[in-house]
Design a protein that fits this description.
Vanillyl-alcohol Oxidase, Chain A, domain 3, five-stranded antiparallel sheet, 46 helices, 43% helix, globular, binds flavin-adenine dinucleotide, binds iron/sulfur cluster
């Protein structure tokens, strides 16, 4: 056993003895903490998720004793590799959360540093307050990470950096104890920090000279204003120290009022140089922010989104977005108008300008800026958009000249690039398109970076205006601070003499780490082994490499729907990012394909129930659910499934059997002792509600209906619910469609096979789908629409079957398949029927309906044609996810995910609830047993067609 392995084991054992928080010491677990949003991958010795400050103290003391470095991590959204390292990664985002005292008069808040900026701002909103600095990663970056990186955002010309808003901080130092840092006398500071004063004394003159004289700079330790010989202010030094001087657990921040009103002007230019050169003039009209977008992003937006194509006419070469604040919308707009008149033709260089005043108008204009990063990242193929020299900054009046210099240097080194960002502060993000698998890229990158940095420093600018030094910029600190950089090493030695905290940044490195640490560096030219699902060409490898670690899928609020499992656990392993990382590690190395079967890899895959929300909402639309189905198919080949999992996979056949002997099946389901025994045998939760089994076959009942002769026909695709549990729903649908002039052909062969796919039983899923293709294709070819009452069935027929079956008939089936509410919506106006019920109903949108890409039609439809008040629950996933929530091992998590919905159902004064998905309705019954819960079709039939006396049993 090597020394490293021995140390690894001993530290792991010691941590296990002292702390209860999660530990990740196996290889897959460690590698899931080896990346952030940068291009680096640094495998740590382990990762730990301490639950409180006491455990954090143990962690630090043990690391000191074992001589292992400590790498604090928040949301890990850093673009420069700030939180990566070879020692122990400490995840502070999971537990150090919570908003403490909000003092509205003093405009301060005390907050746990694991809290995201988005969550903190939501808590502050009722007080009309917010945190000033607004990084665009606000939804998932933590206060600790903002302090570590001294973050700022689009409004930096008004609010500055995080450092300007920090009043005090609690931090754990090498002794494992919590200390307080705030401005005061030297004697009041923790002993370790007092050593910074003599360093400041020694370097006083150089400190006054060395920093760029401009608004933006994030490079190096900030030693200005720390020690004047009488007062010591540790906070400027702590902010931007990138976790190298201690672990911050709590912070007091000062706050700013939320602007009462804003106006947003969008200026369109012929090219990026014209836009950049217009910035100094624009700043004369005192906007609160000016953001720039280049032609590359405009073209990507126009190519992929009709909304952008309508907003940005052909020929638009660049965009400036400028915002003004005011007491009201009129005042804000009035401030914008002079700039709009002077900067637009015939007087100025802009070819066109638009003004957004309402929230909706502003959101439309902002969207292109918000999606800029994703639009650049979406470029397919070998060339990826990377952050390497992405945040140089100069004084805004030099921006036009700097852009030309930069273009010249990048062209000479043969790089294509795109740019966007904070023009008001003289900082434009530069994304380079690079083939990281090409070893020749690194020498070119590092040579170009040095030349580019020397050029920006010669203009009085900075090598980093926003994203910190990290592993990326530390090798170039000598360019930025040719004389001062030894003082940084002295500061580190004084405060952290053992180099315990996050070493490897803030001090010049002798060799550029990208050579060793590129996250795609292990990429093989050919795939390791055959894919289990269908992936065209090498698209499995492409998809596995597509997640760039931005962390948008770590959004904890209900604003975005993804990812229910991450939201409920806060566990990195549950995040879609971890699932993307695992897929990349297995597909492109360094993990072997067999390691998809390790315990950690299984846990990661178990943490995905294929709701598809991340695929929908990830800015780069990485198909994480398909990657996880691929992983599950591989896992199912190696390890046998439980009895319960196998039963769920075969729910179609078992359901048919149960309907034949429905009396016995329902009797068994009602017996607690039987359910308990069943739980022991199958793992299916004895307390979960089970749907009743119907008597006989749906096909026979449907055949007994007298359908009218009509020239319009459709196919009703009967999924498991209608086939086995809810004959009345299928029959109601047939009657409703008859009334609307259609005859209905029920298709009752089997369900769609999604449960088999979810369990990893790919061969079974293939058999189920394959035997349905001939008949469904014949119907589709005859021009019949195939209507699904179950959104999951519609999704499976339209998209999922193509993921595992190669059959040219699937396109026709997919094109003919329509979800029922979408089909029915345009038909109802012709019915002329009116509702006569007045009541309050709540609607829950199923994930798979959203995944179909359609806005749910039911609420608008019912509002339009009835007197019903339909409230959208808007509480995210219900937590059932097919059969996932029916397993005892998932019970708690399933209920926790559904908690918001249950609360809404039981406290909103609703008489009933509706949802298209049968398992969502099952879960809704679990959370609100007293409420009447229906498919919207049943409500339509009952309320809208009551006049026609359409309602009746089978
Ligand atoms: C799409 C995208 C957009 C971005 N936009 C912006 C932007 O507009 N402005 C901007 O400034 N940045 C931006 N960033 C960079 C990044 O989001 C910010 O730097 C953010 O503040 C990092 O927060 P985090 O919680 O992810 O921290 P991490 O990345 O986890 O850590 C950042 C640094 O802080 C240290 N750290 C974390 N927590 C603690 C703690 N509790 N105690 C001590 N040290 C700690 C880490 O060791 C690391 O050095 C963006 C990143 C992405 C991916
Ligand atoms: S899955 Fe998407 S949202 Fe999540 S980290 Fe990857 S790219 Fe970002
Ligand atoms: S498909 Fe759903 S459960 Fe799976 S990772 Fe995406 S959001 Fe999470």
């Amino acid at each position: 056993m090597s020394d490293i392995e021995a140390k690894h084991r001993s530290l792991h054992r010691a941590l296990k003895e002292r702390i209860k928080g999660r530990l990740h010491f196996d290889r897959p677990g460690r590698l899931l903490f080896a990346t952030d949003a940068s291009l680096f991958m640094v495998e740590p010795l382990g990762a730990v998720v301490p639950r409180d400050a006491v455990e954090l103290g143990h962690v630090v003391r043990l690391c000191r004793d074992f001589n292992v470095s400590v790498h604090p991590r928040g949301g890990a959204t850093g673009l420069a590799g700030e939180s990566l390292g070879p020692g122990l990664v400490v995840d502070l985002a999971a537990h150090f959360t919570g908003v403490g005292k909000i003092d509205a008069e003093e405009r301060t808040v005390v907050v746990g540093t694991g809290t995201t900026l988005g969550a903190l701002n939501r808590a502050l909103k009722p007080y009309n307050l917010m945190v000033g600095p607004d990084p665009s990663s606000a939804s998932r970056c933590t206060i600790g990470g903002m302090i570590g990186a001294n973050a700022t955002g689009a409004h930096s010309i008004v609010y500055g950096y995080t450092g300007g808003h920090l009043r005090r901080a609690s931090l754990v130092l090498a002794d494992g104890e919590i200390h307080e840092l705030k401005k005061g006398s030297l004697a009041e500071q923790p002993a370790a920090w007092r050593g910074a004063a003599p360093v400041c004394d020694e370097w006083r003159e150089e400190i006054a000279r060395a920093y760029p004289r401009q608004h933006r700079n994030r490079s190096g330790y900030n030693l200005r204003g720390v020690w004047d010989g009488a007062t010591f202010d540790p906070l400027p030094l702590l902010c931007g120290a990138e976790g190298t001087l201690g672990l911050v657990t709590e912070a007091m921040l000062s706050l700013v009022p939320i602007p009462k009103a804003t106006a947003l002007a969008m200026f369109l230019f012929d090219d990026v140089h014209a836009a950049a050169s217009a910035v100094p003039a624009l700043l004369g009209w005192k906007p609160s922010s000016v953001e720039l977008i280049d032609s590359h992003i405009v073209q990507q937006g126009r190519a992929h989104d009709d909304g952008f194509a309508a907003l940005l006419p052909a020929g638009t070469g660049s965009v400036l977005l400028a915002e003004w604040t005011g007491e009201n919308a009129e005042e804000a707009s009035a401030k914008a108008r002079p700039a709009m008149e002077e900067l637009t033709r015939p007087r100025g260089p802009a070819r066109e300008v638009r003004l957004g005043r309402t929230e909706a108008e502003k959101a439309t204009l902002w969207r292109i800026r918000k999606e800029a990063e994703a639009l650049v990242a979406n470029l397919a193929g070998r060339f990826k958009a990377i952050s390497f020299v992405e945040d140089t900054a100069v004084a805004p009046e030099k921006l036009g000249g700097w852009l030309r210099m930069k273009a010249d240097i990048l062209a000479r080194h043969g790089f294509r690039w795109a740019t966007f960002g904070h023009a008001a502060a003289g900082e434009l993000h530069t994304k380079l398109f690079v083939d990281l698998a090409d070893p020749g890229s690194y020498p070119r990158l590092t040579a170009m970076a040095r030349e580019l940095y020397e050029a920006v420093v010669s203009l009085g600018g900075t090598i980093s205006g926003e994203h910190a030094d990290g592993l990326l910029r530390s090798p170039y600190l000598d360019v930025q601070y040719p004389r001062l950089h030894p003082a940084f090493a002295a500061i580190k030695r004084a405060i952290d003499p053992d180099g315990l905290f996050n070493p490897g940044r803030k001090i010049p490195l002798t060799e550029h780490p990208a050579i060793h640490f590129n996250r795609l560096g292990g990429r093989s030219a050919a795939p390791h082994d055959a894919a289990r699902l269908r992936w065209s060409g090498d698209s499995l490898s492409e998809e596995a490499a597509a997640c760039h670690g931005c962390g948008a899928c770590r959004e904890p609020s209900a604003t975005l729907r993804m990812c229910p499992l991450f939201k409920a656990t806060g566990d990195e392993l549950a995040s879609p990012r971890a699932k993307g990382n695992l897929s990349r590690l297995v597909r492109l190395g360094p993990l072997s394909p067999d390691e998809v079967n390790t315990e950690t890899a299984r846990r990661v895959a178990d943490y995905c129930f294929n709701c598809k929300m991340c695929h929908l909402e990830c800015p780069s639309h990485v198909d994480i659910p398909k990657l996880m189905l691929e992983a599950k198919a591989r896992q199912a080949e190696k390890a046998s499934l439980s009895l319960g999992e196998r039963a769920v996979a075969r729910i179609g056949a078992l359901g048919r059997l149960a309907c034949h002997s429905h009396g016995a099946a329902n009797w068994l389901a009602d017996r607690r002792a039987m359910r308990k025994a069943g739980e022991w045998l199958t793992g299916l939760d004895a307390d979960a509600p089970l749907p009743r089994f119907e008597r006989g076959s749906f096909a026979a009942k449907a055949a007994r209906l007298h359908q009218p002769e009509t020239d319009k026909a459709l196919v009703l695709y009967c999924d498991y619910d209608v086939l086995h549990h809810n004959h009345a729903l299928g029959l109601t649908f047939i009657r409703l469609m008859n009334a609307l002039g259609y005859s209905v052909i029920p298709y009752t062969v089997d369900g769609c096979g999604m449960p088999a796919l979810d369990m990893g039983e790919l061969a079974l899923a293939r058999r189920i789908a394959a035997r349905q293709i001939p008949a469904l294709h014949a119907q589709a070819a005859a021009g019949l629409p195939i209507i699904c009452l179950e959104p999951t069935a519609a999704l499976t027929l339209r998209e999922e079957w193509k993921n595992f079956l190669d059959d040219s008939r699937l396109d026709a089936i997919a094109a003919a398949t329509v979800e029922a509410m979408r089909f029915i919506a345009p038909l109802l106006p012709e019915s002329g029927l009116k509702a006569h019920a007045e009541e309050k109903v709540v609607y829950h949108a199923p994930c798979h309906l959203l995944a179909l890409g359609d806005k749910p039609g039911a609420p608008a439809l019912l509002r339009r044609f009835s007197g019903l008040q339909i409230d959208d629950a808007d509480t995210g996933c219900c937590g059932i996810a097919g059969a996932w929530g029916l397993f005892a091992k998932n019970r708690e998590l399933s209920l926790a995910i559904g908690d918001g919905l249950f609360h809404k159902l039981t406290t909103g004064g609703f008489s009933r609830a509706i949802s298209e998905c049968s398992t969502c309705r099952l879960q809704m019954r679990r959370g609100a047993p007293a409420l009447r819960i229906q498919h919207p079709i049943e409500l339509i039939a009952e309320t809208l067609l009551a006049e026609a006396e359409m309602v009746g049993g089978a």
